[in-house]
Amino acid sequence: MKMDIILQLSIRSIRLHFLRSVLAALGIVIGVVAISSMGMMGANMTMSVTEQLSAMANVLVVKADTGGGGGGFMGPGESSSTSKKSTSSTSTKDYLTKANFDDIQRAVGTSGTVYPLYQDSDKIMVGDSTGKATIYGMRDDDMASVLTVDEGALPNTASSIIVGPTFASRQGVTIGSRITIGDATQNETVSKFRVVGILKSKGMSMDLNSDNAIIMTEKSFVAQFGGDQEYDQVNVILNNIDDANKTKTAITDQLNRKTNVVTIQDSSRMMESITSTVGTLTTFVMAIAGISLVVAATSIFNVMMMSVTERIREIGILRSIGTQKSEVRKMFLYEAIILGVVGAGIGAIMSLILGWLVVLVILGSTKYFFTFQSLVYVPMAMTIGMVICIFSGVYPAWKAADLDPIEALRAD
Amino acid sequence: MTMNQRSSNPIVAAVMQQVPVIELTDVSKIYPLPSGDVIALDHMSIRIDNGEFVAIMGPSGSGKSTLLNQIGGLDVPTSGTLKITGKNIRKMSDIKLTDLRLNEIGYIFQKFNLIPLLSAYENVEYPYILKHRCNDTTGRVSKLLADVGIDRKMAKHKPAELSGGQQQRVAIARALVNDPAILLCDEPTGNLDTKTGAQIMEMLTTLHNQGRTVIIVTHDPLIGAQAERTIRIKDGKVENI
Hints:
The structure holds 2 protein chains of 2 kinds. By secondary structure, chain A is of the alpha+beta class. Chain A has 2 domains: 5-54 and 272-410, no CATH class; 58-266, no CATH class. Chain A is 55% helix and 16% strand. In chain A, α2 packs antiparallel against α9 and α2 (18-55) packs antiparallel against α13. The longest helix of chain A has 43 residues, at 268-310. By secondary structure, chain B is of the alpha/beta class. Chain B has a 6-stranded mixed beta sheet with strand order 6-7-8-3-9-10, sandwiched between helices. In chain B, α4 crosses α5, α4 runs parallel beside α7 (164-176) and α5 crosses α7. Classes of the chains: A alpha+beta, B alpha/beta. Chain A binds chain B through residues 1-2, 5, 8-9, 12-13, 16, 313-314, 316-325, 327, 405-406, 409, and chain B through 69, 72, 74-75, 94-95, 98-99, 101-103, 107, 109, 113-118, 122, 125-127, 129-131, 134-135, 174, 178.
């Protein structure tokens, strides 16, 4: 069967005004490339960030529930003696006890490693400069299993500390440097410590932000800040990320039977928030890229209007010899559809090439490029491009079909 | 020339001749303008029977073109009754009117009005496709083109590549392709030299002799003289029939 005569007329009209049509289609090509490249970049970025976050998502952070009715718990063996907490907080229940820690350990069982963490923030002095720093206290065994040393060694004496790489570079600290911790004006214990090691960069983390902190032994920490076995948090490093929910439930069942003693945080909310932020940014950038499609739509509209104006007489002839209004309308819509399909098709091919390059240059890896989440932006941008093209052709087509055949025949 | 005949039987042709193909009864066409209404056709009554060869003549501004547009189904009267092949066009929708133009009327224009994007063959085939929704496989288009003296090679050319006479021949073939009841010619020789004009008139006369209704709108008395009957109009009114 031969091609529809109306479609043939549309194709021939495009061929007759080839350059003009190419320029109009080029607008769609640019729009489709811009939208899909940005979309693919966003998708790749989201997947890359998600993977990085997933790497540390196997951590559960258990803290004392200080909100609402969670404050009534007094675990067995809990010390009510002079507490570091009493100096820094009005509540004496914003920490986990040894009993809590044991319960958590029991609940986790063999699903992962559990370690307690002391944390405080205090005035420090490095040479002549003073500042504030986050200080962690860890048990010796935990340090060995959790921390990765870049330079030097882990602290093993009461006066030795290890610092994070960001802290070291900010404070100009090297191995052997001395740091004074404590504020004499607040009647705090002031002690001098020697830096014996610098940690490897760990990146952002929920459980232990060691990059910009000082880490000392449990003994040193308790000596400095008090609060023996009053842990600020207990971290659970799961062997398998899939056990996260199961372990959370086990801890909750174990400790929050009567009242809420602990709260458990995992990385999922943080991941959700970060991926949502990346998603919002991607949408924003895609919207900016979408402006190019608006420009393309104007161009197509202009080309179609020119086509109608130039072909008024032809429309008059077509109508006078029995072409229905709907067929004239179809003729111009076909033209818009052809421009849209060709533009979007070329745009799709170019999107794959340019999108790949953009992802490679900006993210440095095309690991996720050929995934559904990434490539879905190509048909999506194509559809948007084609729909915009068709919309741009509707008014000119309607105008052409509604021309009075007598007036149209009079046109030169 | 053996163009497609509507009826070659003289008895049938005689019976057919009694049937009006165009019937205007008290037809007026008024164009409302801010400066005042323009009466282009003023209570006009005309009857043209099947198989007639009629020339509509009149000076410029007499209402010839308006009348042509009405009987060609391109426009509808403001008042009165206009029947084309028995159908009152004032009651027709645009779709029906367009169908009427496609099936019942063959248009031959002064400026040929071929579709520039299509070849001569495709120009003739175009109304056929609109009517039958398929390409011509019967050889009708080729035969009509051959009948008007357009050979196969020439039929492949676009209108711009043909002479005026050739274009008008193609236009005649196009007008005949759907076997219309009426052949409506608007100054068909107006853009042609005398010799070619004469050839075209000869073709139209042949078509009339084969039983077709031919209506020519012209201001050229020599052309008008070739018709069986002349309708003279002036100021939107029929002067004589």
